Structures
1.
Amino acid sequence: MIAVNARPYPYELSPARTALVVIDMQRDFIERGGFGDSLGNDVSRLEAIIPTTSRLISLFRARGWPVIHTREAHKPDLSDCPPSKIRRGNPSLHIGEAGAMGRLLVAGEPGNQIVDALAPMDGEIVIDKPGKGMFWATGIHERLRDMGITHLVFAGVTTEVCVQTSMREANDRGYECLLIEDATESYFPQFKAATLDMIAAQGGIVGWVTPLRELEASLP
Ligand code: TIU
């Protein structure tokens, strides 16, 4: 086990059993004209974490540890998208409607692709998830179990929506979870700060949080 300085106390990382999960670093959330923009958000904050997230991915790739990418993506016929999700927020453009980067949150569209700087490599798992959480309707729990993964390191966007939901789902399934705080971002700085605090509160009720430099300093 490798001890990583973290809040609320050191995270014990198990090298052979740890995977990195990069949540939804897709153009839909990071670039103008995508889903995040259609909800009225200032999307410019999110691209700032691309360099840190890239370093984090490199750290795992260099050791041959698994890297898993997720995308929030619906089937073109939207059969996996509840009407409540389409209606929610009275957005300027709804899920499935055509925006500047193709149909919003629809698999295969230009906006649904992970940003070039963080593009998955051959052999890495890419999960299209219809919900905010990575476990709902994806089958990933069984795949991780088959791989012997017990520890998940998290990055991606947005901190309090898809990242936190996925981390809570993972926590309930018994994974030991660490969130890299400078490789995740929110449209709302106060929600990011609150999310980091609530994950680590109560002795790590959801898991651990730490900056990338602490992980880098701990790994051989
Ligand atoms: N709106 C928002 O903050 N997030 C999402 O809709 N999805 C993700 O977080 N990926």
2.
Amino acid sequence: MRIVLLGAPGAGKGTQAKKLIEKYPIPQISTGDLLRAAVAAGTALGKEAKSYMDKGELVPDSVVLGMVEERLKQDDCKEGYILDGFPRNTKQAETLDKMLASLNMSLSAALSVDVPFEDLMKRLTGRRTCKACGQMYNVYFNAPKKDNVCDKCGGELFQRGDDKEETIKKRLDVYNAQTAPLIDYYGKKGILKAVAGTGGIDDIFGKVCSALGIN
Ligand code: AP5
Ligand code: MG
Ligand code: ZN
């Protein structure tokens, strides 16, 4: 099962990916998470990526494509994976297709999680993430039982640096201009599935599973 998750910032790609990998033992590959880890580790790649991420712009393809290619070569990707936040523009989608074709592989589906733009700002400004296990919370919609403490592992929660109103606006513009065209790209290939990303997280997960034909 090789799946691409599409959706605007805050649509719930990470939230649904985490539920999918609880059910299926394949990795969630989030380019955003990989880039944030590189920034935190202070690697050369992280240093290059940081200035773009802080502005809400896409990190250059030259950085992201090499990182993804390395990740997909790892052993845990043999049975499939969920790509979360990649591809992000047509160039990345075309390169992914070429990478897969050279391995005689193809994508099983591209799943678009659709949320009205007016809901996204609150989801993003309210987001908190566990430093230890990556679980996502939201102070407005699904708050942790205890402030700033992860329900799952007791870890401390943090707020992402790019979840500020001005940066969020930029990220939404970048999504519209560069990433939204991929809905059409995968539609033309006949592998696009779409679910409404509003309502309860578990209800959406049910729709995600039916769209992907898994139960
Ligand atoms: P990335 O980390 O991918 O961020 P994003 O696309 O902006 O998406 P988010 O992670 O913000 O949203 P999400 O859809 O995962 O939502 P979540 O599940 O967390 O990218 C960050 C940056 O890295 C980019 O700006 C760019 O600079 C760089 N980058 C990354 N990939 C790149 C690439 N391929 N090429 C170039 N640059 C790249 O949910 C959000 C909140 O909503 C949470 O609080 C959650 O609890 C809540 N929530 C979820 N579902 C619901 C629901 N049903 N109801 C209410 N609240 C909900
Ligand atoms: Mg995410
Ligand atoms: Zn945790």
